[in-house]
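Sequence in, structure out. Go.
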Amino acid sequence: MYNFTSFEDAQQTLIKTKNLQDEHKLQGFFSSIGMSSGDYVNLQLPQNLVVVGDLHGDSYSLTKILDKIDYRKYLSNEENILLFLGDYIDRGRFSFEVLLTLCKLKTEFPLNVMLLRGNHEAYHTFPFSSFTFDSELNDRFGKKGKVFYSDYVVPLFDSMPIVCEIESFAILLHGGLPIIKDTRFFDNYKFNLSDLSKNTLLLGELLWNDPRELSDVKWQPSKRGLGKYFGERITDEWLSKLNCSFIIRGHEPCKGYKTNHSSKVMTIFSSKEPYPKFESGYLGISYNNMLKCREQKSLLSNFMKLV
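Output:
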């Protein structure tokens, strides 16, 4: 875990991470397998893929996952991807430490560590009652806490990409699939997903939507008060239009993972300390097994690992 030394040290770490993510948004191709268009990232099939779900300040689970994958050796290969699905803060005791650790990872391995944005990284756009990170910063930094949040944390969060497509394999995002009424959207979906700051309705659904087993309707209003519940017909539409096989997302506590929509939607949850009734898990899958899953429509859950 990251060893906090000073306000200025944390400040510089967040600035460096934000600048890296902004640079990638503008670069186009930023690695041998990575392409970026603003809030949308496209990857060719990596040699290995590790996906981590919501952490919510759980430093124990994060440390265990990094140890299990031997992260320094793993990330020494640019074509091994370590992707986080968002919700790094709130609920757990070590939100600040988790966030700084992830920023350090991103700055040390900028080409193959991906930090997607969760709904808890968008409180300033979609406020909700259980957000506590700003209060935690005030407790830590006193009067400087408000400045740290507004001047450094918010810009960092805004720089995080929203959607990652792994070519012909999976769509990765924090919440869920949005309801698209204009089918022309998919004719240029990469462009439409590239600047979500101009479309808060679309952004809100990507960060807040959840899958549900809906037989009679395509979607329903969510009991969360934000976002929607999307059914299997929405999943099939997105997978067909993007020529992918799976949706990989976080956003919901579960026993490490769960599946919906005939196992085409995989939810990953990686936070146990603030959620003792649930489990912490992560996905670890190789290039060959991604090919097998894609071609045979076999279960991604075969490659889930509990911490």
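Check: The two ends are 17 Å apart (CA to CA). The chain has one domain: 27-306.
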